[in-house]
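Morning run. Coffee first, then this:
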Amino acid sequence: MTALNSDSAVDHIQALYRLLLIRTGQSSEAERALNETLTQPLQSANSNPGNQVELFRKALKMAVNVAESPETELAGWPLALHHLPEPARSAATLFYLEIFNPRDLAGLLGLEIEQLARTIDGARRTLDDNKVAAELSSLKLTDAKAHALETLLTQGGNEPVPAKFAASTADESFANRATGKSQPSESDEESDQEEDEEPIKRAPRRTILFAVGVGLVATICMVIFLIADRLNSFEGSDQISELLESANNLTGDEFEAVETRAADLQDWFFLKHGLEHFTVPKQFADVKTVGCRVFKFDGASVAQIMAVTDKELLLYMFQANDLGVKIRKGKWEIVEGDNWVGAVTGQNQICFLVAFKGNKDEMKEFLSKMGQ
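And here it is:
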């Protein structure tokens, strides 16, 4: 995982503090959680106290105590961030802190990239990007406290920072912000950072916004695909697919020879098999038949006709409710299988299915021709 905008351990400590402050709403609770994050051993056996990614992961997993009172020390846009539900609160806060790139941030939060995109986009609809980033950056520990925690971090996190010191620096930090006083400079201590630490490139917020936008576009395309797929299906389509697949095992010997018009078979099916559900759309009335039978499919009685036009056809009739098929009257639904393609329509609670070996485009052309 690649951290971004992370020039020093102090930067990460300040970012951790801001994240925890937004999550808790209280500086004392944020500093307590920060102290625990830096002093408790990391869960990963391969982790070390300087592993900033693991620190953020541990901070996010840590249970924080939010004051029962609705009042917090936050105001303005940071308060708006605080009032967001999780995971939007943590996701949006880290987004504005520009600590990690989008894919790594998604992994840190345990979200898919599309989920992260939707979460951040939803949060940003109620926020002002520039003002949130500016006000968020103003929330910080005093330099003295930050460097004390940095020392603790580099020493391996063996001793916690005294609570008295934590509370006093927190009070000082908020008091200075309230009165407009500047924080004491600790530039000399900053110069003592390890010189061999490799600088890591920053990720401007516009880069993250672009990546989030790409994620949103991908999500929208997926939704459109799912909706289109749903619109192209109907209730009971799986049963029709299985019915088409069953035709692969036919040899022709199953049928009784009956040569007539399809529309003239109603009496034959009733007298021979007691079958009452019979309907043939008018465009198929004159189709020449060569064989008929009735068979059981999933407990339902299905009438099947072998017929010939310019194609070898199989015609099926069955009660719609028996197989859980719902189709609007007069509408044709096309189902394409591995070898067979079928078109089914409904009339008086009876389904009529025509099938042949081919594909969806061929069925569309065939229906168009039959309807002329």
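Residues 233-370 form one domain. Good start to the day.
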